[in-house]
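We modelled the chain as a single entity of 219 amino acids. Its sequence is:
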Amino acid sequence: MGTNLVYLWLYPIFLLSTLLILGKVKAGYLLTFITSLTYSTLLTNEVGKYLIFNFRENILFWILLFPFLTFLTLTPLTIIFLTINSKYGKLIKLISILLAISFFIFPIAERFNKDYSDDIFINAKIDKLGKIIFYCNPHFGDSRTFIVTTRSKKIEKQIKQYGEYYQGSYFLHNTSIIKNFHFSELQSITLTKIGVHEISPQLTWTTKEIEGNIKFLQP
């Protein structure tokens, strides 16, 4: 809600700054710069996600990337206008353009090695030899499943303590995981919590150790 309220306030502020510019009021350019920089900052994370994971979604270009690029363009333009008579005008112009470019490059570069948090549902089964098999779904009742296994008495104890036993299985609701991606490629997943309970030791599996459907793990 906090971020959404900021967005809602920025709409009328941006409209006001546009009207001030049309009225040739210099303060309108300063207000436009502040609004554009704020918008660019707020949209950075979603733009990075779009460029890496959803680039083929054409509708997102118009409602996300296009506004983002527009605000990035406005940011250096307003800085240049406000400092047009400054003796450091050329330096400020260069810095402002580099700032705009960095706002575009950063959301892509940071996803070279990035962790994402998520919650999944797990149906855990423990065989007679102590092998624990995790059947992992996006949520209860979803048919998309991947499987990972482990052998750990400590984890077995925590599963029995925090899980919901049902017909030979333990239901682990709201299991927290950390997903590590190199750009759009999943590298590993780590189990961190069962509900509100942190597990120890935390369990990590690479993609080579995961069997089944992992497409739903994409952010």
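As a brief sanity check on the tokenised model: The longest helix spans residues 27-53. The longest strand covers residues 169-182.
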